[in-house]
């Protein structure tokens, strides 16, 4: 069991000993409100002292079941043994030199691992950065340098970050973009195959959505002006939307036919989250570039762009980089996280989580008209909440359900363009008992609301 729980001293149990948040968290929350900018939110203001395996322990002695993984980051747990060991050793050796000043092996080794793990057997290279948004920005820089074109195509419900260019790429106004414009130009948004909400139903969704997207690109932008098409193989913040089968291959083929760089943004869906190393493998897609972050380094800030060597080499020497990009401690952590994923076969764990969750959530859908859709893959599962008997988004129910779960010591997150999706992203190392206990809490909360 020790190897599954990360921090071995942390009991893998739910424990609720105060109101949530408890008195110590409320005290800290008052200090936080005075000192931290109001624009930075928190889903649940309980202050963490320890976390690992499937639990988060707070300052009041509560232990919460974690169905969030710090937004799909701590797939290997928040204190995985190999991550702690390797990052600690690196910390003691040196914290930073700047890879652009004097390089170090860890950075190279992470790039070698990325070449091995990402889809396709072509020659690949990588560049490392600090955050997902930074990786996406750099993918655009690289695609523009390679194609000598400017336009970037993104999709309805897409999320790619909060920097200026990635705000432009992100679909949803509130809270990500509102009041923060003007946004970067040459960004075009087209429909995605969202089966549950496709006007003519899910059957023809892939074909119709692809035809509409391709028509818009061809007629409104001009395919030969497009540098990159960027898509999340499972759309994360937009509501865990799996594009209807057939859509991604059509778009990837269109990109290929027109010399457009096809970028899979796997920042949320990558690294075993969906039961495969990368979600695009599900339909055999081989992206030209792939962006990764979140799950890559067990919680340390690291991100990457990986892709075809000839595309990755298109930017002039010195054109890519950043002071901290590929920090040695973050690289050591990534190597520890990847080691953990391989050793514990976390792809298999993610598929098992899907089996348990989808089985129980499908049964709940039969009973509760407010669950319009159960979807997702691996340990990236969601329920979309609606007004019973309709598809009208029910954000109030999602909020109420999340709140009810939090009060019982289960951390869940919401998402979705309409704010009506409850998403579940447990660490892949969570014990099955905790997983089922979490589902029990969701079931009871559904009965109550
Ligand atoms: C989280 C996320 C990003 C942005 O990553 P940050 O590290 O928060 O900048 C980009 N794309 C996707 C798909 C994401 O889920």
Automatic annotation (TrEMBL):
<dbReference type="Pfam" id="PF00202">
    <property type="entry name" value="Aminotran_3"/>
</dbReference>
<protein>
    <recommendedName>
        <fullName>(S)-3-amino-2-methylpropionate transaminase</fullName>
        <ecNumber>2.6.1.19</ecNumber>
        <ecNumber>2.6.1.22</ecNumber>
    </recommendedName>
</protein>
<dbReference type="InterPro" id="IPR015421">
    <property type="entry name" value="PyrdxlP-dep_Trfase_major"/>
</dbReference>
<dbReference type="InterPro" id="IPR015424">
    <property type="entry name" value="PyrdxlP-dep_Trfase"/>
</dbReference>
<keyword id="KW-0808">Transferase</keyword>
<dbReference type="GO" id="GO:0034386">
    <property type="term" value="F:4-aminobutyrate:2-oxoglutarate transaminase activity"/>
</dbReference>
<dbReference type="InterPro" id="IPR015422">
    <property type="entry name" value="PyrdxlP-dep_Trfase_small"/>
</dbReference>
<dbReference type="InterPro" id="IPR005814">
    <property type="entry name" value="Aminotrans_3"/>
</dbReference>
<comment type="pathway">
    <text>Amino-acid degradation; 4-aminobutanoate degradation.</text>
</comment>
<dbReference type="InterPro" id="IPR049704">
    <property type="entry name" value="Aminotrans_3_PPA_site"/>
</dbReference>
<keyword id="KW-0032">Aminotransferase</keyword>
<comment type="similarity">
    <text>Belongs to the class-III pyridoxal-phosphate-dependent aminotransferase family.</text>
</comment>
<dbReference type="InterPro" id="IPR004632">
    <property type="entry name" value="4NH2But_aminotransferase_bac"/>
</dbReference>
<dbReference type="InterPro" id="IPR050103">
    <property type="entry name" value="Class-III_PLP-dep_AT"/>
</dbReference>
<keyword id="KW-0663">Pyridoxal phosphate</keyword>
